Amino acid sequence: MAIVSVCLACIIAGEAGICDLQTQIAVAHVWHNRQAAGIVGGWYGWSVPKPTQIFIAENYHKFADPTSGALMLVSDADLPRVTRYIANLRQTFISQRCANGQRLYGFGP
What we know:
The radius of gyration is 13 Å and the shape is globular. The chain has a 3-stranded antiparallel beta sheet with strand order 1-3-2, sandwiched between helices. 43% of the residues lie in helices and 13% in strands. By secondary structure, the protein is an alpha+beta fold. The protein has 4 helices and 3 strands, in the order αααβαββ.
């Protein structure tokens, strides 16, 4: 397994480890979209991945991007704080509620 896959799996686990599979796949695609756009960093969740997150990190490209090209993922708790950053972006994704009751929203160009 490549180091990039390990890092991505840790991001998936930290950002959406308690969410459904579609949301975890969405995190991987947003990570890829950010890389392609030259956006570095911006991930605050980091955790030890489970086998599911490792599988997603290595295979997300085999699944359609459920975010339609989103460059940002924002939780319910973060929405009020990031309004100025997402004002010019369109909402492209809304997750199911995660185990903590939160949702993740995708925003992109």
